[in-house]
Automatic annotation (TrEMBL):
PROSITE patterns: ZF_CHY. This is CHY-type domain-containing protein. The keyword Zinc-finger applies. Signal peptide: none annotated. One of its GO terms (molecular function) is zinc ion binding. InterPro entries: Mito_Tim_assembly_helper, UCP017292, Znf_CHY, Znf_CHY_sf. GO terms for biological process: protein import into mitochondrial intermembrane space. Pfam families: zf-CHY (PF05495). Keywords: Metal-binding, Zinc, Zinc-finger. Residues 8-89 form the CHY-type domain. PANTHER family: HELPER OF TIM PROTEIN 13, ZINC FINGER PROTEIN.
Length: 105
């Protein structure tokens, strides 16, 4: 199982900040190459050197489905229509509002 750091509250990567039924992804932060459920968890428990994924690296695996533990590339995640392409778990569509915290836009 892939380690997810931060204020994680369950095995599906929900955290104290985001814990709805659809909050089941973790993001590998570009700066420290470590998975966290959200930007707030990274701010509280991370490396302190926040950096976003550059567009030219969107082919790399950096999104973890907390339901099936499948790692997705950023491209796969962005084109997933808010569902895991492996297990069909629903992802939170509201996450698109926070994409700039993780990915170059």
């Amino acid at each position: 199982m892939i380690e997810v750091k931060g204020s994680v509250i369950d095995k599906q990567t929900r955290c104290v900040h985001y814990h709805s039924e659809r909050d089941v992804i973790a993001i590998k932060f570009y700066c420290c190459q470590t998975y966290f459920p959200c930007v707030y968890c990274h701010e509280e428990h991370g490396c302190g050197k926040h950096a976003v994924w550059p567009k030219e690296r969107f082919y790399e695996k950096a999104v973890l489905c907390g339901v099936c533990q499948t790692e997705l590339t950023i491209e796969q995640y962005m084109t997933s229509n808010y569902h895991c392409p492996h297990c069909n778990a629903a992802f939170n569509p509201g996450c698109q509002l926070h994409a700039h915290y993780y990915f170059e836009v």
